[in-house]
Each structure stands twice: as C-alpha cells, then as structure tokens.
Amino acid sequence: MNNVKNLRTFPGNRIIWHAVIVGIVWLLLLLLNNNIDPLYSSYLALVAMYATAMFGMTILVGLSGQVSLGNGALMAVGGYVFALTSMNWQTVPIIGWQWNAVWSMVFSGLGGILIGGIVGGLAARLRGPYLAGLTLGLAVGVPAITNRFPELLGGENGLMLSVPYPAGGYAALDSALGSSSDSSSGATVDPNSAVEEDQYAELDLSEFEQGANPDADLAPEDLLTDGDLLTEEDFGVGDQLTDGDLLTEEDFGVGDQLTDGDLLTDEDFGTGTDLAVDPTGITDAFDSGFIIERWQASMAIAVACLVAFAALNLVRGRQGRVWKAVRDDPVAAAVVGISPSGSKISAFVVSSLFAALAGAVFAQILSFIGPGAFGLGLSLSLLVGIVLGGRSSLLGAILGALLLVWLPELVDGLSGDRGWPEQITNNAPNLLYGLLVVAVVLAAPGGVTGTVRAWVDKARGKTRSPLS
Amino acid sequence: MTNFIDYLLGGFSNGAVIALMALALVLVWRSTRMVNFAQVGQAMFTTYVALTIQQSTGNWLLALVVAIGAGAILGVIVFFLVIRPVKNSDSTGAIIATFGVLIALQAGAGMIWGGDPQGFIPPVDNAGLEFAGRIWPISPYDILVLSATAALVIGLTLLFTKTSLGLSMRASAFNPEVARLSGVRVNRMLISGWAIAGATGAIGGVLIAPASTISPNSFDILLVFAFTAAVIGGLDSLIGAVTFGIGTGLVISLVSGYSDSGNAAIVALVLLALNLLLKPDGVFGHHGARSV
C-alpha cells in the first residue's frame, strides 16, 4: 500500500513538500530563538551545528554503512577554508564580486566536496574496519597537519576569525563591552541608523598585510647589530634588586585592605544595567539590539535548514535507495546497474560537504579555529550522536545533536548540586556516551528513532529491519 | 650519516611497542575477524593500574605482572559484554561498539586518575649508553623493551605452532565451522584470543609509558601507528605485525629526527593510505575471496 503511494507521488511534489516542511520548521526555530534567553540561543546554535554535520553522518554511516571517524577533520577543513577566505580575500576570485560571508560558506562547501572526493575515492576501495582505521588516522592527524603549516593555519594556536556579524554588529558589541557601567541603552543599536557599510569590510585588511612585512618599513641603519646588545655594564650594581627591596606587609597600609564594607551592593549597580531579555517581545528585541547568541543561532539554523532540505531530498529520493541497496547487498546492487563504489563515493562527498558547512558554522560560533576543537574527540562525538539518535534517520541526527548538547549540561547541573569533583564532572558525559553507544548497538541498533519506529510498526503489525 | 644511524637505532624501542600493539590487533582479528579499536584504550587503562601499583609498592615487575593479568581480564570482559553479543548483528555496529568501549575507558581513566599527564619511572636507566667513545641512542631500558618484546614474540610463535591450544586457535580462526566439527571448543578459543591480545597490549602499554607520559588520550596516536603496522602486515599475520611494527617505529624515528615529530602522524597516514590502495590485503596477508 505504502509502495503504491510512493510510486504515484511525483518527485516534484515531494520536493515542494520538503520545502514546506523545512520552511515551517525554520520559521518556528527563528521564533523560538527570538523568545528564549540568549543562553539557550547559544545551545540552539550548537544543536543546529551538530545536526548539520550529523545529517552527513546519517547518510554516510547509516545509509551507506561506512563508519567514518574523519568527519571532525572534514569539519576542520570547512572551518579553515572559511577562516582563510574571509581573512584574505576581498573579492571573489575570477568573478571579481565583492566578498561576503556567504562566499566563504560556498568555498568551505567546495573544500569539503574536494577533500570528501579524495577520501571517498580511497574509502570506496575499503571495507568496514579498514575505512574506520584510515579515517581515524585522519582525525588524529589534524593537529599534525595544522602544525605542518604554522604560517598558513596558525599551528597549534589556530586562527582567530573576524566573524561577519551584520551591519552594526561590531559597534553594538563594542559598546556593550565598553560601556557596561553605562545604561543599557548603550548596548543597543538601531539598525536604521547604522552605517550602510559593512562593519566587517571596515576592518582594514591592508593593515594586516603591511604588518606582515615589517622589514619594508625599516631602513638598514635601523637594524640592530651586535654592538647594540646589552651587556652587564649597562646595568649598574645599584640597579639589581636585593632582599631589602622585597615588599613587606608594612608597605601596605591597614587602610588598603578590603573590608566587608567595601563589598559592592546592589545599590552600586544601577537598575538599568540588568541584562534581562527585553520583555516587550520578539520584534523589539530583534530590532533594537544585537545579541550575539541570537545571531549565532539564526546563522546556524539557516545552514542547518538548507542542509536538511538537501538531505531530505537525497535520503527520500532515488539516491537514498541506491545507498541502502549498496549497503545491504553490493553484489545485487551492481547486478541492477548501480555502481557500488560510485554510491560510496557520493555518500562520502555529500557527508563531507555537510561536515565542511558545519565546520564553517562552528568556527563562526567559536570565532576561532584550531586543531584542539576539531580533533578525534569531535569525530567521536558525531559518531556517538548519530548512533544514539538513530543511525539511519535524519530525525535521529537531530535527536543526537540535542543529546550531545544537553547531556553535558545535565551532568553539570547534577554535579553543581552535589559538589562532585571536577575530575568526575568532566568525564561523566563521555563515560555515559561510551556506555550508551555500546548499549544501543547491542540492544537497540536503530537508536531512539529506530526503536520508536519499531514500536509503532509492532503496534500496527508490521515488521522491518531496525536499520532500514 | 651518524645522525641516520642514531635515528635508526632510536626507533627500535618505539617500534617494538608498536609491534606489540599491532600484535594485539592481529590476535583479535585472528580470533573474531574484527579490529578492536578499544585495544589501546584497554592498554591505557591497565597501564594506569600498573602505575598505581608501582607508585604504592615501587615494584616494577609486580606492576607489569598485575597489568598483564588486568589486560587479559579486561580483554575477556570486553569480549563477553560487548563483542559476543554484537558479533552476529551488523558489522558496522561491531566497529562502533569498540569505539564506544574506547570512549568509556578513556573517560573512566580520566575519572579515576585525572587528565593530567603522569610520569612512569622506568625500572632501569633510560639514558643513552656510552660505548666506544660516544653516547648511543640506546638505553638499558630500550634493551629491556626489545628483549621483552622478542621473548613475547617467540613465546607466541611457539604457542601457535607447537601447542595444541595454538593449533586449536588457528583452526578456529581459519574455519570455525570445521574446527567445531573436529571437536575444538571454538568459543573458548575466541576467549583465549581476546585474553592473550589484552595481555599483549597491556605489556606494550607498560613498556611505552616511561618513554613518554601517560594520560587518558596519550595512546590515541599509538592506535594509528599500530593499525598501520597491522594492516600493512596483513592483519592476520603475527610476523607481519612484528616486522611492520618495528618498521613503522624506524620510519617514525627517521621522520621525527630529520623533520619534526608532529609529522610522524602524517607519514603514518600516507603509508596506510598507500598500502590500502596498492596492496589492501597487506604484505603478509592471505589473499581470500573478498566481497565487492
């Protein structure tokens, strides 16, 4: 019955349906984002970022059956491309248009596709454990690769990003930070009065370029020679500090010590400085002030929704069936004219594209990119999330993303109440993740979504594989 | 040239430990046809156990023996709780499950012993020996590591070629159905394989610890090196694991010596990728029928 219905559905209809669904979800999320506390907006941004990367994991691990630990590294590719292009390019190469953040996202995606194609080409020749091992090497190798090119990629310290906040964003942030003792009106910016020019473009990149070549400003006589070295004679004996120079308690007057009376009371803070959410509602909060967490969340949500739309069409269309066919029986798939290696490579390329976009979003959220945040831990997190949420469903990816953000907060809250040592609190989420992954693989391979669907099917009297 | 010889000699001790880890991976592969990505996690955990014993008693040998026992037990526990239940379901799940064990072990070790790197005092001097008028990059401790590895490899070879247990294990690895029909208790052989692999990994962990420091994640890179060595060796060949384990150690030492130790991971990755492309069954591997 279901199959007949699917056959009758014209693909164009399906795409419109997906667009409508994703559009509604997008609107709801934006509404949510504008009404919650900025702290929750920052969680929302992380969930959207994880979900973006994990839609790719659904396709790669769930549908195509390739276990990859390299997606954290592929996220790093996207993040670094975003950082480098947004820092160094002012116009689009070849076309010559004005550069903006969307172009950086486009090039991050292209970088992901390129690297995904290379890794996928290798991966298509490999079976399960070999692929997992190779991609594990990729994840572990990220720090080594960034250290290999310290000038370009910033080595271990990574690169600071100039995040492309909207017009007026930087000014709002500056005044929010600079005039915190002022009234709260300083932290708001009226977008209508904001200068038309992009604040981001105003950060004069040429200054950096000059700074990169300091020798040009120096005349030969300015250079220091050996004769300029300081010798001991340049320091008189009297200049050396002796024990007598040590500061003693007497050097501090009694009056210098802080007493209880010096404690700041509520009265020292004006009432206007409370960082409360604007009670007048969404539109006011959005129009009158720039809140960085809101901006991060709306940016991450936009990318996640676009990626979700693409993923929905791929997964529920012909390509999704091709991936599953090759996963379940490569020989049979080859017999009906599907190229197993082509299918595996395409899964890798798609997941790599999604990972790179997620990496670019992550870099903007952190306003930083470095090997530490994109190492093996991130790759393992993605795997954990996708397994727990449900390996072969896009909804599972979203649930997994929620779990990845929520569980550490839950543990933190629990430990805050009970005063657990930091050693326990920091490791508890990972211990839970590890145990849960094993438990899910053993008892409910379909994760949350697969298990729920199995219950529903059972109630309806149908049976199917938990991973279908 | 002197540099070259120094770098080469300096690589043997690390290579021996990589060989041990690769051996552990191979032993598991031979018994259950899967790669245990939690292997270095188990080794890390037992090395912490050894560290605790050594710190409280000061006895290195006791620490090593306890670690070996703990490694075998941990291997059997992982096999019973995780591998045996999952084995007949999907192969993707089996791989993921071993990573789950790795994550849990690393977090558990972080909970018990903390995340800060800790030093492991070697039982003998770890400074280069002076001989023929110069200092060589081989210390008494390196000699201990190499002889322990050699003894273990000889012991394992004898076990597999000369004893009935070894013969049964080989039979179960080669063809479980036929082995079962011939009266081999295949399940016991699988358990033995996991126990021996766990013990081998534990020895490797205790031996490598004094050369660097130990922290919950410090063996991650060792997993990549060991996997590289095991795969190039053919995944089911003991001699291949040992040869390419030591070979990987030498290459890493040369790369670290001539450029930077950070590049070792990249070189391992390139070696692994090239091998998987050109000779996916490994140099010593048996060529069998392979699914598409």
Can you give a write-up of this model?
The complex is a heterodimer of chains A (468) and B (292). In chain A, strands 1-2 form a two-stranded antiparallel ribbon. Chain A contains 19 helices and two strands. The relative contact order of chain A is 0.18. Among the domains of chain A are: 11-163 and 290-373, no CATH class; 166-211, no CATH class. Chain A has helices at residues 2-8, 11-35, 38-63, 71-88, 101-123, 128-148, 150-153, 169-178, 199-202, 205-212, 282-288, 292-315, 318-328, 330-335, 340-366, 376-389, 394-418, 422-443, 447-460, and strands at 159-160, 368-369. With 468 residues, chain A is an all-alpha fold. Mean pLDDT of chain A is 76; it is low at 178-217 and 269-288. With 292 residues, chain B is mostly helical. Chain B has a single domain, classed as ABC transporter involved in vitamin B12 uptake, BtuC (Orthogonal Bundle), CATH 1.10.3470. In chain B, 74% of the residues lie in helices and 1% in strands. Chain B has a two-stranded antiparallel ribbon. The longest helix of chain B is centred in the N-terminal third of the chain and has 31 residues, at 2-32. Chain B starts with a helix and ends in a 14-residue tail after the last helix. The model of chain B has no long low-confidence stretch (mean pLDDT 86).
